[in-house]
Automatic annotation (TrEMBL), chain A:
It is a multi-pass membrane protein. Belongs to the binding-protein-dependent transport system permease family. CysTW subfamily. InterPro entries: MetI-like, MetI-like_sf. It is found in: Cell membrane. This is ABC transporter permease subunit. The keyword Acyltransferase does not apply. The chain crosses the membrane at residues 12-37, 72-95, 107-129, 159-181, 261-279. Residues 73-279 form the ABC transmembrane type-1 domain. Keywords: Cell membrane, Membrane, Transmembrane, Transmembrane helix, Transport. It comes from Pseudosulfitobacter koreensis. It comes from the Bacteria.
Automatic annotation (TrEMBL), chain B:
It is found in: Cell membrane. The lineage of its organism: Bacteria, Pseudomonadati, Pseudomonadota, Alphaproteobacteria, Rhodobacterales. The chain crosses the membrane at residues 7-31, 67-87, 99-124, 130-153, 174-194, 232-253. It comes from the Bacteria. The keyword Electron transport does not apply. This is ABC transporter permease subunit. Keywords: Cell membrane, Membrane, Transmembrane, Transmembrane helix, Transport. Belongs to the binding-protein-dependent transport system permease family. CysTW subfamily. PANTHER family: PUTRESCINE TRANSPORT SYSTEM PERMEASE PROTEIN POTI. Residues 61-253 form the ABC transmembrane type-1 domain. Its main location: membrane. SUPFAM superfamilies: MetI-like (SSF161098).
Length: 291, 272
């Protein structure tokens, strides 16, 4: 009996507040927009027969016909992909250096990586507004150094979005890679060097392949949330920055087109399923390797 | 081998500068006298003064705190239960679905979680406000709690619990007196994680709130959209300060705890 309660309480909670809401999103994505409250038809009140008869794939057809959505999906994928790559290039050397640091420093270095993660996401993104704007610190510094003659426009472009994503998701990249390199048996690298590898070759042929699981995990941890990101493109990006999270938010709050917003959400979810499954496979393989 | 090569020193220096300079600049310029946030005009704490007179911000802070305390406490209870079920529950019907529902919210884009919960609340005709935000936050943060707690539970030596049961403890007593103290650090960090996630959330709160409840991130968002303001810098600095003190204290405490545990283990070995 006690076991039943223990299972049932969290189970029912998640069913009611996680699974059922998805079913509703899916249902509304097949409905039509209506000038009513709630602004879609048919609703549950119309009875089950009318409910099922009123559903169609019209909104999905609409999404494929309108250029905006197609472009938003492609550009979200592109922005998420490039930022993940840059985050890896910035994060790997940091994770490597942390794992190779004297042991008594590692806890402090770890804390320094985790601290920004606890700090408000919104504030960390906001901090860049003052840095990247035309009169901002970056332009002031570059003008003073004489690198440029007139201020660069970075804020309100995709560049600012890349910087924002790399900045906020960097800890997610560093932590799994650090864990992978720290576990790595250093005698393997020594063996490679004894057998005639240069340090660079040993790094390329031993360290990188052995930290592969950490790299894959880090990339997914950055790519997946970056794809649906709303705050960064809205705050740092310009009107030309199309990302699907932003489109969904605006479709819902500004246009009040719930059926289309729901259809946008359903497609975003379908796109995400592939990387999520790949990520879970990687995690499973890692767990099996540990055992 | 454990010496830092020049390349490693450079990458750490630049990496941490990248992580910390933006926040440092934000804090420094919260003490700027000028309203222009990018030109230094002298030291002043006036923006902190105006911040504390701004009723709208104080109200929003109070709402946020209420939501965070309620949702993180609920999430800790539900998340710990879920972790127990995942690690100890054995087989039951729909186990795969259950673990799927625990892991899915961790990677779900906030816009989707927010949208789907809002549609649910409207569908069942629930009045939106503090309660609906609490429900929404509890749902996604209980998953984070259960991941943290279940990783601790799965490394836990079950024979300790069995020993307590053999010695006559009831199952509930064994949990209360043996299991809970051992997993307590994970439960506490789960609570802290849930608390921070709730404090921080903008997107899900924007979807699930009603006209009566505005949280601090929503308030910050609406003024940040208009550009940089010194008041927001001051508010951000206060939040950064609180988090830094909290994280540093927590890590010092856990370090001291680790040292004490090691010393006790050594002492125990000497006795035997």
């Amino acid at each position: 009996m006690r076991r039943f309660v223990l299972i049932a309480v969290p189970y029912l909670w998640l069913l009611a507040l996680f699974l059922v809401p998805f079913a509703i999103v899916f249902k509304i994505s097949l409905s039509d927009i209506a000038l009513a409250i709630p602004p879609y038809t048919p609703t549950l009140k119309d009875g089950l027969g009318a409910l099922l008869a009123g559903l169609d794939f019209e909104n999905f057809v609409f999404l494929t016909q309108d250029d905006l959505y197609w472009k938003a999906y492609v550009s979200s994928l592109q922005i998420a992909f490039i930022s993940t790559l840059v985050t890896l290039l910035v994060g790997y050397p940091m994770a490597y250096a942390m794992a190779r640091a004297p042991e008594e420093w590692r806890a402090t270095l770890m804390m320094l990586v985790i601290l920004p993660f606890w700090t408000s996401f919104l504030i960390r993104v906001y901090a860049w507004v003052g840095i990247l704007s035309t009169e901002g610190f970056l332009n002031q510094l570059l003008l003073w150094l004489g690198v440029i003659n007139e201020p660069l426009t970075i804020l309100n472009t995709n560049w600012a979005v890349y910087i924002g994503i790399v900045y906020t998701y960097l800890p997610f990249m560093i932590l799994p890679i650090y864990a992978a390199i720290e576990r790595l048996d250093e005698s393997l690298i020594e063996a490679a060097e004894d057998l005639g590898c240069s340090r660079l070759q040993a790094f390329w042929l031993v360290t990188i392949p052995l930290s592969r699981n950490g790299i894959v995990a880090g990339c997914f941890l950055v790519f997946i949330p970056a794809l649906g990101e709303f705050v960064i493109p809205s705050l740092l990006g310009g009107s030309g920055t199309l990302m699907i999270g932003k489109v969904l938010f605006e479709e819902f709050f500004s246009n009040r087109d719930w059926p289309v917003a729901s259809a946008v959400a359903v497609i975003l979810l379908l796109i995400l399923i592939i990387p999520i499954i790949l990520f879970q496979r990687n995690e499973q393989r890692q767990q099996e390797a540990e055992q | 081998m454990n010496r830092l090569s020049p390349f490693n020193v450079v990458s750490l220096t630049f990496g941490f500068a990248f992580l910390y300079l933006p926040m440092l600049i934000l804090v420094i310029f919260s003490f700027n006298e000028s309203k222009l946030v990018t030109v230094w005009a002298g030291f002043s704490t006036q923006w902190y003064g105006t911040l504390f007179q701004n009723e709208a911000f104080l109200d929003a802070a109070w709402v946020t705190l209420k939501v965070a305390v309620m949702s993180s406490t609920l999430a800790t209870v539900l998340g710990t239960m879920a972790a127990y079920v995942l690690v100890r529950g054995g087989r039951f019907m729909g186990r795969t679905l259950f673990s799927g529902m625990i892991y899915a919210p961790l990677v779900m884009p906030e816009v989707i979680t927010g949208l789907s919960l809002l549609l649910l609340f409207i569908g069942i005709g629930m009045d939106r406000g503090v309660m609906t935000i609490v429900l929404a936050h509890t749902t996604f943060s209980m998953c984070f709690v259960s991941v943290v707690v279940s990783s601790r539970l799965s490394t836990f030596d079950r024979s300790l619990e069995e020993a307590a049961l053999d010695l006559g403890a009831s199952q509930f007593d064994a949990f209360r007196l043996v299991t809970l103290p051992i997993i307590a650090p994970a439960v506490i960090s789960g609570w802290l994680l849930a608390f921070t996630l709730s404090l921080d959330d903008l997107v899900i709160a924007s979807f699930t709130t009603g006209p009566a409840a505005t949280t601090l991130p929503m308030k910050i968002w609406s003024s940040v959209r208009l550009g940089v303001s010194p008041e927001i810098n001051a508010l951000s600095s206060i939040l950064i300060g609180i988090v830094s003190v909290g994280v540093i204290t927590a890590s010092l405490l856990s370090k001291r705890h680790a040292v004490r545990v090691r010393r006790e283990e050594q002492a125990a070995q000497r006795v035997t």
